[in-house]
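SEQUENCE-TO-STRUCTURE ENTRY
===========================
Question of interest: how does this chain fold, as expressed in backbone structure tokens?
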Amino acid sequence: MSQSKSDSSRKRILDAATQIALERGPKQLTLDNVAKQCGMSKGGLMHHFKNKDALLAGMVEAMISLLMTDTEETQQQHDDGLAITTLLRSRQLHHEKIAMYQAKILLVAAVENPELLKPMQELMKCKKQEIESQDAIDESTLLWLAADGLSFQELMEISPFDETERNAIRQKLIAKAVALEEAKQ
């Protein structure tokens, strides 16, 4: 029971930290503000996260966990042969489940301490190796980079495409990945 309560407290802290970072900005992401936002003492918060870097690391870890869950769900729903198809479909699922602004957590972490992004860098290296292990390296890499570029533009709020256009682009990228898979068979 206490593990469940501990997990619940940890999630509440991470949710509060995310809300503060996104609504008030990274400079307002302090342990005091997070403790106040989630209605606990600073000592209680520090039981879960000993300092701000640990809190940011927890936020990055939660983002990676969500990405991995989306990838697993996509693999269960689709019997795709190419890693790029799974990656693009899971990116679409991730986009539909959470607002893009939550990905800004990675930017907050990068500003505070670039070392906190190492787990995300490792995840990206694994995805790259998975894609490169298959025949369609060049095309898959281009599709991946196109999807990342689209996401980056949206993340930075500089995209010239509206939501409908971005969804259409994502669907075209997925269709191209499926065509690569079919050509491989």
In short: The mean pLDDT is 83.
